[in-house]
Amino acid sequence: MLLRPPRVLLALVLSVLLGGFLAGCSPAAGGGARTAAPTRTPATAAPTGASGLPVVRAADLPPEARGTLDLIARGGPYPYAKDGTVFSDFEKALPREERGYYREYTVKTPGERDRGARRLVVGRGGETYYTDDHYETFREVVADEA
Predict the structure, then answer these.
(1) In angstroms, rounded to a whole number, what is the distance separating the alpha carbons of residues 122 and 129?
(2) What's the first-to-final CA gap in the chain, in angstroms?
(3) Closest CA to 83 of 116, 113, 106, 115
(4) Assign residue 126 a region: left if phi > 0, alpha if psi is -120 to 50, beta otherwise?
(5) How far is Cα 141 from Cα 127, in angstroms, rounded to an integer?
(6) Is 112 a catalytic residue?
(7) What pLDDT does 50 receive?
(8) Which DSSP state fits 125?
């Protein structure tokens, strides 16, 4: 089980829920048929997160990633056996921490029969990172602005 300051966890959950609600209310949301093709999530042009990595707002994550954030906040249950296991960061893409600091979670990819390439990686301090290219690049997930 991950230990996070309650206020960080609450802010992340609220931002995900509020972001999903607001996205569903926008005129662009439409309500028509959606394609199952995965899309890359927009990142800011300059690294502005605490990690120095590019950032992505929780509300801008794909709906499957927001669902995984919700599962993490609730402590599971997770759909894949590897969810919640230690992420070792062999690629050295995240801020350097001791082994066991980071845990990884699968973000389901529509149309994929296996775990796909998308993951959320969460540090013990509650910091969250998203990759949609199987650890080649990461973006720091930041709470939506109020």
Answers:
(1) 6
(2) 29
(3) 106
(4) left
(5) 8
(6) no
(7) 77
(8) T
pLDDT at 98: 95
Catalytic status, residue 136: no
Instruction: Give pLDDT tens digits for 38-61.
Output: 555 554 444 456 788 999 999 999
What is the SS3 assignment for 139?
Answer: strand
Average pLDDT of span 59-69: 96
Could you tell me the sign of the dihedral formed by the alpha carbons of 120, 123, 124, 126, in that order? negative
User: Considering 91, 97, 112, 134, which one is annotated as catalytic?
Assistant: 134
Query: What is the Cα–Cα distance from 83 to 26, expressed in whole angstroms?
Result: 32
Report the C-alpha gap between 31 and 23 in whole angstroms.
11
Exposed / middle / buried, residue 51 (Cβ in 10 Å: 0-12, 13-18, 19+): middle
Give residue 143's pLDDT. Answer: 86
